[in-house]
Design goal:
The protein is α/β, with parallel strands linked by helices. The protein has one domain: Alpha-Beta Complex (Spore Coat Polysaccharide Biosynthesis Protein SpsA, Chain A). Helix content is 30%, strand content 18%. Strand 7 and strand 8 form a beta hairpin. The radius of gyration is 17 Å and the shape is globular. The termini are far apart.
Length: 290
């Protein structure tokens, strides 16, 4: 498309099973004989373009046509976590530019309906594939949706030619609009462990379109394993002075919730809440009336 846009990418359907998913079945979406999607989708030697052509498009370019300027906020979700995702976006959904800078990619028809009920309908877009199975941390479709996340990042960088992505999981609460990627950086991320600068949690990432970042996510797709482990394995493709952590007091995690103050927060990720019930309980801290 040639449009220079930056994308904020939030993930709503957190799901893949802990068993391998056949390549053909992952292309179709959904469970394959109880399989997980931890296995690679394509060969490691494939070019980025060939990889995208083989996997097929998840996104219709028309759904990105009306973006304004160079920023896009982006989430995808299935029905299991859809209510949390739209609730987490609600503090910023009243921004006049929200519909022109956000897309919620919905992995099933029910999540699409939920999204349209609570957010501007222009924001809500159905993906080409369906991943509808309820999936908690490392259960059922959890790993497959992680591969879907990497696949979508590659498609947006390579095919849609977006220049920046801001990627957030669907269990992130957004108190204010997120910052743009630092001009001196190509990759910024949430810490997995408080003050451990080099251990990445992929629930919050800012990504520049470079050969190094595309190689990183190419290999996440091409190799077997959990996407977060693979990002940590291959982060060294990006020079150390071009990658680094987000401010943990502003882009926080439930894992260190007691060390943050609400007035400092831009976002907070419900990491360390490993099932839907625990995530809902955590959300009630910030949405007590709901």
């Amino acid at each position: 498309m040639g449009r220079a846009c930056s994308v904020i990418f939030v993930i709503l359907g957190l799901g893949l099973s802990s068993r391998p998913m056949a390549f053909k079945q992952l292309l179709k979406g959904g469970p394959a004989d109880g399989n997980s999607g931890k296995h690679s989708l394509v060969g490691a030697s494939m070019t980025n373009k060939a990889m995208i052509e083989r996997l097929g498009s998840l996104v219709d370019g028309e759904d990105l046509r009306e973006l304004h300027g160079d920023s896009l906020s982006f989430t995808f979700a299935n029905d299991y976590h859809a209510e949390l995702t739209v609730q987490g976006l609600s503090p910023i959904a009243t921004d006049p530019m929200f519909a022109q800078t956000w897309r919620v990619f919905c992995l099933d028809n029910t999540s699409l309906q939920t999204c349209r009920q609570h957010l501007d309908p222009h924001v809500c877009v159905r993906t080409a594939q369906t991943f509808s199975e309820p999936s908690d941390f490392k259960e059922k479709q959890y790993f497959a949706i992680g591969k879907l996340k990497a696949r979508l990042i590659m498609e947006l960088l390579e095919k849609q030619e977006l220049q920046e992505l801001a990627v957030y999981d669907g269990d992130v609460i957004h108190f204010r609009n997120a910052k743009k990627l630092d001009p001196k950086m190509d990759f910024e991320y949430q810490m997995e462990i408080f003050q451990n600068r080099d251990h990445i949690n992929i629930g919050q990432m800012l990504i520049r379109n470079t050969q190094e970042t595309k190689k990183l996510f190419h290999d996440v797709l091409a190799e077997d394993g959990w996407d977060q482990d693979l990002v940590n394995k291959h982060k060294f493709y990006i020079p150390s002075d071009r990658r680094g952590p987000l401010d943990p007091f502003a882009y926080a995690s439930k894992c260190w919730h007691g060390q943050t103050k609400k007035n400092q927060l831009v976002t907070i990720h419900a990491a360390c809440a490993t099932d839907l019930s625990a995530k809902k309980k955590f959300y009630r801290i910030y949405f007590p009336e709901q």
